Amino acid sequence: MSDTIFAVSSGQPPAAIAVIRVSGPAAFATAERLGGRLPAPRRAGLRTLRDAAGAVLDSALMLCFPGPATATGEDLVELHCHGGRAVVAAVEAALATSPGVRRAEPGEFTRRALLNGRIDLAEAEGLADLLEAQTERQRRAAIGAVEGRVSQALRGWMDRLSALSAGIEAMLDFAEEDDVPLDAAMVARIRSDMTALAATMLAAVDQPPVDRLHDGIRVVLAGPPNSGKSTLLNLLVEREAAIVSPIAGTTRDRIEASVLRGGIAYVLTDTAGLAEDTDDVIEAIGVTRAQEAIGQADILLWMADAPPPRDDAIWLHGRADLPGREALPEGRALAVRRDNATSVAMVWDAIAAHAATLLPREDALGFKRHQQDQCRRAAQALLTAQGDDVLLIAEELRVARQALAAVLGVSATETMLDALFGRFCLGK
After folding, report:
1. Which of 38, 236, 278, 412 is deepest in the core (most CB within 10 A)?
2. Are the beta carbons of 236 and 268 closer than 8 angstroms?
3. Measured at the alpha carbon of residue 221, what is the angle toward residues 218 and 222, in degrees to the nearest 5?
4. Helix (H, G, I), strand (E, B), or coil: what is residue 360?
5. What's the pLDDT at 255?
């Protein structure tokens, strides 16, 4: 029998109301010791909470949810207390002295929901993302996973795999028992269905993963010394993030600034000027780091007269407010003027247009990177089994089923679960 666990699930006090959840086999008995007669299931009742010595702790609303139709799949009690620190501490202390009751570990409520079949691993990961969401795009993508959009697709594919496996196994059993040759036409139909299913899966995961929404789009400003990189960074983030001076080489290391714009998280990086030759050891290190940043950039803003080192770079004409630099040279995408806010807004428009190609569509299934990898593994297994060897086909179908099952947590390891649920707060 598992322990009964408790934790605050409404955020840490102080607050107007604190919701303390109690889940497990002793949840109802513990609640009865604290507040007396239990209210009817799923109906709130006002109760006076008392400790073991009979001292009043608080006047609270109590709700009881009989398992397994609960958030955790177990008997669950919610105590809606006043949200002061002393009140919450007193109620928690009383709970901790109850037999078989202990404080929950981070993510343990959701972990029990997974182990008891109330949610699957894909939905649990979506919930983790929802708790960490800082932008509207992140929230919407996470809600889709929590509501089961990814899980529904995966279960549909697993159902099709199971039907194909059943057909193959039946053919094998029938051939062994009756010494009848395998039906070549049926084998061909199964192979055709496997190819079609692989194409469906690959089309669904052929898009940027939702991880990109949380990682942020990395925008790197690069070019030679005194090309206006730091000035543009400050204009884009609308604050003095980088030091600007007429002295070449003022920026010697990468300077990062995070920006939330249009519901998308960006990390803008100003880099040291790419000096062709320098005897300054510190400046040389800065140049090396700038070159590394260029290679790692999702979007490169290139501010030099020489062509950019990447074909996908946005080639800007900087310092266009200076005499002799007013005209936009051939090949440049945009001119940037520090005295013209419209030119800066146009740079943001170019960044946003490029970022749209790096992020998943809002109407697409929100697969995470490792989920995409497992789906591709499953699809590759289906495409590999293209011969007439029925045993090989059966094995590749098994490999495909295992790959998709791993995404749903059917074969999740304890290490994977610990890494996931460690991201949660205590009351979740």
Report:
1. 236
2. yes
3. 125
4. coil
5. 85
Tokens of 384: 């590999």
DSSP annotation of 323: T
Task: Report the alpha-carbon distance of residue 234 to residue 165 in Å, rounded.
Answer: 59
- The tokens 């070019």 sit on which residue? 223
Ordered strands of the 334-335 beta sheet? 255-261, 264-270, 217-222, 299-302, 314-317, 334-335
pLDDT, tens digit, 9 for 90 and up, residues 204-232 = 999 899 988 888 899 999 998 888 888 89
Do β-strands 264-270 and 217-222 pair in parallel, antiparallel, or remain unpaired? parallel
Whose tokens are 């005499």? That residue is 323
Quick one: how far is CA 370 from the chain centroid?
Answer: 11
With beta carbons less than 8 A apart as the criterion, state whether 48 and 56 touch: yes
User: d(Cα 354, Cα 162) in Å, to the nearest integer?
Assistant: 41
Where does CATH 3.30.1360.120 sit in the chain?
4-115
Q: Which two tokens stand for residue 146?
A: 């929590």
- 213-356 fold: Rossmann fold (3.40.50)
Closest CA to 313 of 328, 302, 305: 302
Tell the CATH topology of 4-115. Answer: Gyrase A; domain 2 (3.30.1360)
Structure-block tokens of residue 45: 């009742």
Phi, psi of 373 (to 5 degrees): -60, -40
Contact 239, 319 (CB under 8 A): no
E strands in 26-153: 45-50, 56-65, 76-83, 101-103
Tens digit of each residue's pLDDT (9 = 90 or more) over 64-108: 999 999 999 999 999 999 999 999 999 999 999 999 999 999 999
CA distance between the termini of the chain: 21
Written in H, E and C, the secondary structure of 170-184 is HHHHHHHHHCCCCCH
Residues of the chain with CATH 3.40.50.300: 213-356
Q: In this predicted model, what pLDDT tens digit does every residue of 108-154 receive, in sequence order?
A: 999 999 999 999 999 999 998 998 888 888 898 999 999 999 999 99
Token pair for residue 209?
Answer: 């993963």
Within 13 Å, how many C-alpha atoms sit on residue 416's CB side? 14
Which residues does 279 contact at the CB level (< 8 Å), separation at least 6?
Answer: none
